[in-house]
From TrEMBL:
GO MF assignments: histidine ammonia-lyase activity; phenylalanine ammonia-lyase activity
Catalysed reaction equations from the record: L-histidine = trans-urocanate + NH4(+)
Keywords noted in UniProt: Cytoplasm, Histidine metabolism, Lyase
Pfam families referenced in this protein's UniProt entry, alphabetically: Lyase_aromatic
Protein localization: Cytoplasm
Pathway of action: Amino-acid degradation; L-histidine degradation into L-glutamate; N-formimidoyl-L-glutamate from L-histidine: step 1/3
Name of encoding gene: hutH
Protein name in the entry: Histidine ammonia-lyase
UniProt keyword annotation of Protein biosynthesis present: no
Any one GO BP annotation for this protein: protein homotetramerization
Organism encoding this protein: Wenjunlia tyrosinilytica
Post-translational modification note: Contains an active site 4-methylidene-imidazol-5-one (MIO), which is formed autocatalytically by cyclization and dehydration of residues Cys-Ser-Gly.
Similarity section: Belongs to the PAL/histidase family.
Cited HAMAP family: His_ammonia_lyase
GO cellular component: cytoplasm
Amino acid sequence: MNLHTVVVGPSDVNADDVLAVARGGARVELSPSAVEAVAASREVIDALAAKPEPVYGVSTGFGALAVRHISPELRAQLQRSLVRSHAAGMGPRVEREVVRALMFLRLKTLASGRTGVRPVVVETMAELLNAGITPVVHEYGSLGCSGDLAPLAHCAQVLMGEGLAEGPGTGEEGSEGTIRPAAELLAEAGITPVELREKEGLALINGTDGMLGMLVMACADLARLFTSADITAALSLEALLGTDRVLAPELHAIRPHPGQAASAENMRRVLAGSELTGHHQDDAPRVQDAYSIRCAPQVAGAGRDTLAHARLVAERELAAAVDNPVVLPDGRVESNGNFHGAPVAYVLDFLAVAVADLGSIAERRTDRLLDKNRSHGLPPFLADDPGVDSGLMIAQYTQAALVSENKRLAVPASVDSIPSSAMQEDHVSMGWSAARKLRTAVDNLARIIAVELVAASRAIEMRQWGNPNASPAQATREILKATREAGVQGPGTDRFLAPDLAEAEAFVRSGGLVDAAESATGLLA
């Protein structure tokens, strides 16, 4: 059981809170000040609902149907109908962690006291998260404007005791429960379904929570992968007998991009004490190493700076209360356009570009390690008996396929817009689509880095066979030891290669590669 608790108040939460709830199963607790803020904003909505003048979301229809005034006896039905009709997603199920992030972020906004829902709505949402009940949300249904409508509607439907949800599972990390009717799961957990009142259905579905949750998780994953890429780039430089002089701090100080300096310093520290570097002037003299080696900090560093910008946007969005209309501190209820996902969509697409390029340069290094004409003395494809053995030839094919897919995924979603709701919602962000493709790209990047790790570690070991007196860096030795202990086999005759690649991928994803390097270097950026 995870005993960690995230307290949600009327102010913003942070990225660590999102990760704790989405991935760590942390419990959620509402602060007394949050409940007070929610109750106060509800008084404003109740007062408006009692007036004869129409107020959007309170006593009117929605979208292009907002012209109709809804009488008091139909308003509960209005909110139910809104949720049911908007729960129109299709396609595969969305991952449990994404749904938990989406629910938690909607809870965060509801608890801000800016949406006008009753305290019972917020309290029940927290109960769902704490019970481990996860609504079934589908891949398609959000245009990233007027909120992640269909995904959030599927969550709101479960709050009402309708639709389908996944149970809490066995309690073990990563376990999944059975898909069952939400009413059964709520009853077993002792949770009373919510009967929605004025504005509450709208408040439950009108936010950027899905795309924001995926952005927060992608940023966390990429922080580890950028460090991993610096490490494998250093290993490749070492395996190719390149020079580490290009990593000198004074060279990067005269082009003061912080990400570039951080990546160069990571590589320099990994390579400290290596007896393999600096031999580029030996048998086949090189004036300079190839771009994929020499410019590794510039490319990875640009990605790091992109990540820093994305995190800034995420922090701002985490501090936001996204709904329409909103209850302002002075009691006014105003329509607005804050639900538009453009700020989040842009950085999701920006990250996909950086991810694609980082994978591309890693693949070029791998290809260089395998090409006897460019590897400076390594056997073709790092094969044990070239011709009889193919070595890592097809591992590079797999890596190239992943790189190619990431290039396609780098095409921005946010430049597209398809009008909806009878042209009332005539410009949308496609931020949900940007987030979904970024998740795939990040997964692919982990695999691309894993292939470079397999190739570079094998190359270094084979290099030592030819020159046993030339010792790799201390960090490299720790990495090779940990990689082999993780189940990734070293050089030898051809064997079933997919298990090695899978173990390398798991090693990279888990942070094992970074941990191994840091055991020698200390904390890396």
